[in-house]
Model the fold of this input.
Amino acid sequence: MELRVVDQAETKAAAKAKAASAPTLQPAASHRRNPGYPLDLDWVERVRMNRSALERRAATLPARRTVKKDWQAAWLLKAITLMDLTTLNSDDTPGRVERLCAKARHPVRQDILEGLGATDLDIKPAAVCVYHSFVKTAVDALKGTGINVAAVSTAFPHGLAPLSTRLAEIEASVADGANEIDIVIERGMVLRGDWQALYDEVKAMRKACGDAHIKTILGTGELATQTNVAKASLVCMLAGADFIKTSTGKEKVNANLQTSMSMVRMIRWFHEETGIEIGYKPAGGIATAKLSLDYMALMKEELGVHWLQPHLFRFGASSLLTDIERQLEHTLTGHYAADYRMPMV
Done:
C-alpha cells in the first residue's frame, strides 16, 4: 500500500471520536475484591484443557479480529492505559527507574497526542513494575500521578526461597509503598499436583499483601500442560489472587494466546461460580502493537469489553510502548519513526 501523509485535521477529529467510543474506564471502587474461598479439590480435578482445540482457536484470532486506521489508534491509546511499564534487569539503577517513571508520566510524545486530539484523555500506564529495591524510588517519582507501583517479590523469578523470606519481602515492599505485588509460585508444587501446598502458600502471601493487590505469576512455560496451567489458575484464585499472570518474562516460553485462552476461561468459570471478577496479565514477549491488539481481542471475545479495564487486565511490557508510539505516529504521518525517537529510559 502506498504511504501518504494523512490529513491531520481529519485524523484528529476521527481519532478523538473513536478513542472516546472505545471501552471507557470504570472506577475500580465498584469492583469487589476476591475474598478467597476454601480449596475445592473436586473442582480442581474436574478441570481439563484440550490443547489442540486451544491452539486452533488461538490461531484464528489474529486473522479474524483486526482494527485499522483511526480505530487502531484509539485501541492503541487504550492499550497504554493497560500496561505495567516494567524494568526487571540485573543492571537496574535508581536512575533507570526514575527515567522509566518519567516515561510513565508522559508515555506518548505531546505532538502525537495533539495530532490525535487525545490530550484530554489522560493517557498513562496502569503501573510501573520494579524490583523491591526500587519501590521507594518509584513511589517518590510517581507521587500524585495515580500510577500504581508494583513490586516483584517472593524471590522473583524462581520463587524458591523459604516461605518466611518471601513473606518478609512482600511485607517490606508494601511498607515501602507498593500497592501491587507480583508474586511467583513454586512451579514444582504444580508439577507434583500438590494443590494444598500451593493454596496454602498463595493464601499466606495474600495475607501478607494486606490492602495491596496480589498478582500470582504461574510461570506457564514451565508447567508442562495446559491442564496444569488451568488447575494452577483455579487454585490461585481460590486462595485469593486478584490477578493471575502468565510469566516472569525470564522463562524460555512466556505469554502466548493458547495459554492465555486456558487462563481466561478459568477466570470466566470462576466468575460464573462465585460472581468475583479476577484480573489477567500476560507478560513476556509482548513487544508489538499488533500483538497487544490480539490480546485485547481475546479478552473482548472471551470475557467481554468490561474486562478491558486496568483493574481487570494488564500487559507486562518493557518495549511495547515504543512500538505503540511508532504506530501512533504512523497514523498521523504515514511513516514509521525510528525507535530512538521514542526512547524508554
Remarks:
- The first helix runs from residue 8 to 21.
- DSSP finds 14 helices and eight strands in the chain.
- Strands lie at 83-86, 127-131, 148-152, 180-184, 213-217, 243-245, 279-281, 315-317.
- The two ends are 34 Å apart (CA to CA).
